[in-house]
Amino acid sequence: MSAPRHVAVIMDGNGRWAKAKGLPRLMGHRAGADALDRVMHYCRDAGVEFLTVYAFSTENWKRSTEEVSGLMKLLSSFIHKKEKELVGNGIRFRVIGRRTDLSEKLQKEIAALEKKTAGGSFTLVVALSYGGRDEILRAAAKFQGGTEEDFSALLDTAGIPDPDLIVRTSGELRLSNFLLWQAAYAEFYFTDVLWPDFGREEFDKALASFAKRERRMGGRK
């Protein structure tokens, strides 16, 4: 089997990584951002076309004001620091989720980077203030009837193929409200490795595991 066209990642374990090292939680999130940078390049090298990462869920707003503020600043910093690289390397940046929850400044920064990178051949999708149930409810409110394809076109991921492989780090074995509609026929790879420690070796294991799967998509062979 060839490499998955679309890999989605539930980036879990930043807080536990920081705690184990006696560091503030935000340091774990910064290390997680470095891991994202690595994995983005691994995907491109492997021929993956889409990488979707679960960066901040609708439930994450319940976290402390300090942590939420730090995460938003980290995202803004990522946008500014990576803009030149993304544009220069043909990487399209896209955000899915409830953007109206974000500050007006951050919304403008996101929209500007999406516009500048629109022609990229590789797509990085960041799920921000995102929840699968919320996404489905928003789409259902607009749905006037039709096919699954018609409904999919109303989701935040319109125009993006469903994920072939979903990776979750840190030993948790659940979707946590991530891509509930889109994950219908995805393959899963779970690892105990915390996200900041996710490197080339574990990425290769995930792809090797995917390559062994026989994907029937509900049919029989």
Q: What would your notes on this structure say?
A:
The protein has 221 residues and is an alpha/beta fold. 43% of the residues lie in helices and 16% in strands. The chain has helices spanning 14-20, 25-46, 65-88, 104-116, 132-142, 148-152, 200-211, and strands at residues 6-10, 50-57, 91-96, 122-130, 165-168, 187-190. It has a 6-stranded parallel sheet, with helices on both faces. The radius of gyration is 17 Å and the shape is globular. The two termini are 16 Å apart. The mean pLDDT is 95.
The largest pleated sheet is described as: 6 strands, parallel
Query: Roughly what percent helix?
Result: 40-55%
Shape: globular
The helix count comes to 7
List the strand order in the largest sheet: 3-4-2-1-5-6
Q: How many strands appear in the DSSP assignment?
A: 6
Could you tell me the strand content as a percent range? 15-25%
Could you tell me the radius of gyration in angstroms? 17 Å
- Structural classification: alpha/beta
Q: What's the helix-strand series?
A: EHHEHEHEHHEEH
Low-confidence stretches: none
Distance between the termini: 16 Å
| Average pLDDT score | 95
Main attributes?
7 helices; 221 residues; alpha/beta; single chain
Give me the secondary-structure topology.
Layout: E1 6-10, H1 14-20, H2 25-46, E2 50-57, H3 65-88, E3 91-96, H4 104-116, E4 122-130, H5 132-142, H6 148-152, E5 165-168, E6 187-190, H7 200-211
Parallel strand pairs: 1-2, 1-5, 2-4, 3-4, 5-6
Helix pairs in contact: 1-2, 2-3, 3-4
In brief:
With 221 residues, the chain is an alpha/beta fold. The protein has helices at residues 14-20, 25-46, 65-88, 104-116, 132-142, 148-152, 200-211; strands at 6-10, 50-57, 91-96, 122-130, 165-168, 187-190.
